[in-house]
Amino acid sequence: MKLIKTVDAAGHVLCHDITQIIRGVTKDARFRKGHIVTEEDIPVLLSLGKDHLYIWEKDETKLHENEAAEILKDMCVNEGMSYGEIKEGKIELKAQYDGVFVVDEERLDAINDLQDIAIATVPQYMPVKAGTKLAGMRVIPLIIDKEKMEEAKKIAGSEPLFKLVPYRDLKIGVITTGNEVFLGRIKDTFTPVIEGKFKKFGLSINEHRISDDNPERTTGFIKELLDLGMDMIVCTGGMSVDPDDLTPLAIKNSGARIVTYGAPVLPGAMFLLSYYEGEGKKVPVLGLPGCVMYASSTIFDIALPRLIAGIEIARKDIRHLGVGGLCQNCEVCHYPQCSFGK
User: Fold this and answer.
1) Contact 101, 162 (CB under 8 A)
2) Do 195 and 263 sit in the same domain of this protein?
3) Is 253 within the bounds of a domain?
4) Does any domain span residue 115?
5) What is the DSSP annotation of 76-136?
6) Same domain, 183 and 313
7) pLDDT at 161
């Protein structure tokens, strides 16, 4: 790479994109890397504020920013991801289908810790739609040492840094608990809310049971739904500390392994997550607190995409939600395009 005056650039090869910015009209490359400058280009380049240019001189120990971006892309891209052309040294990945974005944070941090490399992504476990931008990557300088990119490839290893996990087609069972609903004192307004949340993922409730406050009855319904082949079971109500709220006991007595009863998320602190394991299946059995019925976004909205995608949630994952686990209760809910659960 060599620096020359623009007025002397005719016949030379540009080694980076030259961007033109016209406010409200365009921000794009006016001249692309590799372009051979002509006499007619010189006045245009000067109008863009380019009194000097970098022109290409081949060096076997260096890589151009575009070549480096290709290497970064190859480290990251995985099934279900597309990418466009390189612009101004940057390349972006997009989702080809709906799913949950997963990134190997440890490897990504190590690569970003190398001087002059930048890979930026959407948040970990973010539910995304087809066409969503997932990541952008580039190197900072125009030219970078090959040796540094080799170091990045060594850190990345043979597996892509990213995954896009598609949603599964699941059979859903819901158990509504509480004497007030079981005895007909009030109408069940919880189940329609749950149904609406599953509908966003193309799922419906396959089986529904209504239980009183007797934990043995609720446990029996859980076992019944397991026998019917449900892939996820959701119990609503009975999750607080009142003496009649015995849903956690009912879930425990079903034989499900309790991952956590309680989460550092507001709303959703009384959330229960468990898994029933048997016959080669691992079925999430959830206990949902009353806030899910009236709050726009809760712990359930954070956990549900991962569970539908088949991403197992561990206790440490729930505890990690404390930072970012406070919903701002915005007048218009923009979840998941916000900080909640991130």
Assistant:
1) yes
2) yes
3) yes
4) yes
5) H--TTEEE---BTTBEEEEESSSEEEEE-HHHHHHHHTSTTEEEEESPTT-EE-TT-EEEE
6) yes
7) 98
- Mean pLDDT of the 218-247 span: 91
Is residue 66, in this structure, part of any structural domain at all?
yes
- What gap in Å lies between CA 73 and CA 75, rounded to an integer? 5
Nearest Cα to Cα of residue 193 among 88, 93, 298: 298
Residues 288 and 185 in one domain: yes
CB atoms within 10 A of CB 36: 13
Please report the pLDDT score of residue 23 as a whole number. Answer: 82
How many CA atoms are closer than 13 Å to the CA of 22, on its beta-carbon side?
5
Say which residue the tokens 């809760």 belong to: 298
Beta bridge partners of 266: 326
- Token duo for residue 242: 């009142």
Contact 28, 19 (CB under 8 A): yes
Residue 307 lies in domain: 172-322
Handedness of CA 11, 17, 23, 24 (dihedral sign): positive
At 260, which helix (H) or strand (E)?
strand 257-261
Tokens of 35: 């372009």
Domain co-membership, 234 together with 285: yes
Strands 18-22, 172-177: pairing is: unpaired
Confidence at 243, pLDDT banded by 50, 70, 90: low
Boundary-marking domain end, from 116, 144, 166? 166
CATH number of the domain that residue 134 is part of:
3.90.1170
